[in-house]
Amino acid sequence: MQPEFIIIHQQVAPYVAHIQLNRPKELNALNLQLMGELRDALKLLDADDQVRAIVLSGNDKAFAAGADIKQMAEKSAIDMFNTDQFSTWDAIKKTKKPIIAAVSGFALGGGCELSMLCDMIVASETARFGQPEIKLGVMPGAGGTQRLTRAVGKARAMEMVLTGRFITAEEAMQAGLINRVVPVDLFLQEAVKLASEVAAMAPLAVKMAKEAVLKAFDSTLEEGLQFERKNFYLLFASEDQKEGMKAFTEKRTPDFTGR
Ligand code: HXC
Predict the structure, then answer these.
(1) Mean pLDDT calculated for residue range 238-251
(2) Eight-class DSSP state of 58
(3) Could you give the CA distance from residue 14 to residue 21 in angstroms, rounded to a whole number?
(4) Which residue, 90, 161, 208, 258, is the most exposed by fewest CB within 10 angstroms?
């Protein structure tokens, strides 16, 4: 079935796919259907050999203004528990290929959390990141207290989470939350460019390197180092390792196949 709230562009550049969140009138508020469609699309793209990196964007005005408040407003704790919306987020987290968020305008609440679930963030000058849940009488629920704190540190995260203050793209850049700030008319292009750079690398090495970097967030240094070492050894079983090192000695560009 065709998704209703996202648009999938299979090849916006060689080996780069683009998913656009598409509920513009609601500033891409993340209702359950949209998140389900996003999970399904990422699963398909993760299994597609013609895709090596994925760009996730909204539009100029909003990446996403958060979870759909209207859909949540009347829910009880038991409804929320039974809906188990975070199993969708957990599935998205398992995407092996790198996801680059292209953020312009609002990235708030679940929108900020979704951008942080991605592996890199390219932002436009108009991007605003925030966790305003506190103003609704709740708090972040999809990583806002954890990923944000790890990215920007306790002082800034505490202020954002406890006051709901938005930060600008420039502040987000200084705080280490995002990778680039570019003019609005370039943010998508720049994200595709970054995705293309990654997509030119050996796909297996990219997936294993992503996995190892993420491991740094939930392991001790020693566990993380052991994990890294295993992935490093494992890559010597790949054809792309042979090709990459041969191409270096032959002074040519490697032709990676993902095997
Ligand atoms: C549902 C939303 C929405 C949201 C905006 N809209 N954000 N609908 N859920 N999160 C709708 C508005 O109701 C309105 O529709 C339309 O989008 C345009 O929004 P406006 O408010 O008219 O636009 P503007 O004045 O430009 O203000 C933009 C804004 C504001 C500052 C982003 O919309 C806002 O504060 N939104 C809520 C942000 C927020 O609190 N996010 C966190 C949600 S909780 P109508 O039809 O009414 O005109 C959360 C928890 C995550 O994310 C938990 C894990 C998933």
Answers:
(1) 98
(2) -
(3) 21
(4) 90
| pLDDT tens-digit series, residues 124-155 | 999 999 999 999 999 999 999 999 999 999 99
Q: Which ligand 1 atom is nearest residue 136's CA? A: 40
pLDDT at 1 over 90: no
Of 5, 22, 23, 26, the residue with max ligand 1 atoms within 8 A of its CB, to mutate for a pocket test, comes to 26
Beta bridge partners of 106: 62, 128
Taking residues 196-222, report their average pLDDT.
Answer: 97
Given the residues 67, 127, 142, 202, the one annotated as active site:
67
Question: Do the strands 167-168 and 128-130 form a parallel or antiparallel pair, or are they unpaired?
Answer: antiparallel
pTM reported for the whole predicted model: 0.97
Which atom from ligand 1 is nearest to the alpha carbon of 142? Answer: 54
| Cβ-based neighbour number of residue 93 at 10 Å | 13
How confident is residue 110, by pLDDT bands cut at 50, 70 and 90? very high
121 close to 68: Cβ distance less than 8 angstroms: no
Pocket, ligand 1, Cβ cutoff 6 A = 26-27, 29, 65-70, 106, 108-110, 132-133, 136, 141-142
Candidates 133, 171, 190, 228; catalytic one: 133
Pick the CATH number of 203-249 from 3.75.10.10, 3.40.190.10, 1.10.12.10, 3.40.50.2000: 1.10.12.10
Topology annotation, domain 6-199: 2-enoyl-CoA Hydratase; Chain A, domain 1 (3.90.226)
Catalytic residue among 17, 37, 113, 191: 113
pLDDT surpasses 90 at 6: yes
